[in-house]
Amino acid sequence: MTAAQESFYIQQFKLGDTSSFQILYQHYHKRMIGYGRSLFPNQEDDVKDAYQDIFIALWKSKDRLTVENTLDFYIKRSIKNHMLRVNQKKMKFESSPNESDYLELYEETNSLDSIIESEIMILKDKIYKQKLDLLTKRQRFLFTERFINEKSVEAIMKEQNLARQTVYNTIYKSINILKET
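Above: the chain's sequence. Below: its structure in token form.
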């Protein structure tokens, strides 16, 4: 899926299009499950549950979603945080003599943490977009292809018919501009 297609599907999803939602779910599924398993080996079922929970939450909050181009960073961060909460919950249950006394408090805290975390992610996304606006169209495109869409320099070279040094120089200048701001 190209960046333009992904952006289109995200926009349609935000408008409530279920087929775009399904396409995005399938597009990220294998890669994000693999990412979750790399962080939390031997917990594949929990990672799959986390992935589904994240997409359920995305659907419920689609009208407030600020992501425009890619859900990659958002999903990775969400999987990691969700799995950390799952493991934290498991550890509390294993070590707590009266789990039922703590469960209600833990769920309330998790809910508040989730809200705060999502607000922080929204702010970071806005800052990220503002910084990307400082780049030229070409710098922004090559930077996004390399780091957001995780394409290799070789793939970018072939797709854009550019020399290797051009790609490297443009990305290097982009990084320096983003560091300075």
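The helical segments are 3-14, 18-39, 44-60, 72-95, 99-132, 137-148, 153-160, 164-180.
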